[in-house]
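I wish you would study the pair of lines that follows with an eye to the fold:

===
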Amino acid sequence: MGRHLVVLALLAIFAPANAFADWYILLPKKPLPKREVTKLPKLKVAPKKVKPKPYSVEVKKIIAPAFSVPLFGEGKLCSRELLGKTVVIFFVDGLFTPFTERLVSALERLNLKGTTFIVVSVNDADFAQVYQFKRLMGVKRVVVSADSYVYKLFKERVKNLSVPSVVVIDKYGFIRFFSPNLEKVPLERATAQLQEIVRSLQKV
């Protein structure tokens, strides 16, 4: 019962009423194996008048898998390099599609410090097109890649993950939110909700 109350509290804080069907807050149904449980830093004692956020006192969450995203001609971006930052990973079914092009353009306009945006095509054949896509789209802030294996790693942790979808990882390396219904939601609404979620996690 307590777990359900935590989930409801989180939904009330982070998502508008019309977004409940789109975003999911992740809490494991079963305890994680001891080797996968990482202790969060101890929280500073807040003033009595300020109640701690529900997500600040959760003990167990789903740990993001260790992953590396191949970069065209620039090596790889590894998950260990991203600790301390909020990471938002979008999984798409192709680069040169209307959805992906609109998505990347929208992400390029977002100004969220301490956040890394990664767009990964699950079509491995797209890897040869990464450089061309970045050049034609004028991509500077967003990391773009193609790797079906990265998607497979996250799918093992989040069974309901689909394509296209988005996963939000906090600065401690835990998966906190995901949404598998990107194409069903207006892009403007999805990015607005995403900004609220990211800014909330950055306050921890």
